[in-house]
Every structure is written in structure tokens, then in C-alpha cells.
Write a structure and sequence with these properties.
mainly alpha; elongated; signal; RHPN1_2; Rhophilin, Rho GTPase binding protein 1
Length: 150
């Protein structure tokens, strides 16, 4: 979810210049938002640079909060604490998202940061359920030497 929020931000600011891909960008946004409740339609939000910045800021805020939660869970788990590389990756991505968030934050912006719309998860892979085949595994009875139950 965190990576998606960062990629949405990139898409929001890259789509600001190209008018020919405007319809494709709107279709992409509509495909991954579960509920887009608000006073303005998505096309109006994408056309207005200030609304686009606010939506991007909301997604970045969501990403920063999820990064902080991941770092907290990492510090709680004993096995994960042994993985220094994971701690490095989590802290670097958190720092990068926080820097982007501070870059978008303006001194004269007194509006409260809105909540980012929910993102619909989707995959192109179909889950396959396979039952285990217990007949192929040799099992030895570890209690055989104890003898029969009396």
C-alpha cells in the first residue's frame, strides 16, 4: 500500500503536463480507487494543480504513516530486528517519503490534509488451492519403541 501511494503521487505530478493522456490517466485513477467520495469529480481534481497537489499530499501522508507503522512492527519482532538490511530499507524509504511530504508542504497552507481515498487491491494472478498429498511422505512412529498401550 505504501509503494502504491508513492507511485500515485508520481503519476499525479507527471500527468500534469500531458493533455493527450488525460483520459487514460483518469481511467487509471478510477480503476484503483474503491470509493471516490467528494464534491468534485476526478477529472476536475486532475485538471487543477492545487487539487492534484492536495491529493498527492494526502497519499504521501498515508505512505509516511504506513512507513512508521512498518518500522514500529519491525522493532517489536525479535527475528526482524536481526535483519539490519530491512531496517535500513525501511528507514530510507520513510526518509524519502517524509522529504517529499515536506517538499509539498507549504507555509501558507493552513488547510487540513485530507484523507487519501481507499485504494483497491488487485492482481493478475489467480490463487490456486492445492491440497497436500500425505501419502507420498514416509512417516516413522517415534513412539514405536515404547510398546503398545496397556
Amino acid at each position: 500500500c505504501v509503494c502504491v501511494c508513492v507511485w500515485i503521487l508520481s503519476l499525479l505530478f507527471l500527468s500534469a503536463d500531458g493533455e493527450e493522456c488525460e483520459e487514460e490517466v483518469e481511467k487509471a485513477f478510477l480503476s484503483f480507487y474503491t470509493n471516490l467520495s467528494g464534491s468534485q469529480p476526478l477529472s476536475q481534481i486532475l485538471l487543477d494543480a492545487e487539487n492534484r497537489r492536495k491529493l498527492g499530499k494526502a497519499h504521501l501522508r498515508h505512505a509516511v504513516m504506513k512507513h512508521e507503522e512498518a518500522i514500529r512492527v519491525h522493532s517489536l519482532c525479535k527475528i526482524l530486528r536481526k535483519m539490519d538490511i530491512l531496517q535500513d530499507v525501511l528507514s530510507q524509504t520513510h526518509k524519502r517519503s517524509l522529504d517529499k511530504y515536506l517538499e509539498l508542504d507549504r507555509e501558507d497552507d493552513f488547510d487540513e490534509t485530507a484523507e487519501a481515498p481507499e485504494i483497491q487491491a488487485q492482481t493478475h494472478q489467480k490463487p490456486e488451492i492445492t491440497s497436500p498429498n500425505f501419502c507420498t511422505v514416509q512417516v516413522t512412529d517415534i513412539f514405536q519403541r515404547l510398546g503398545p498401550l496397556s
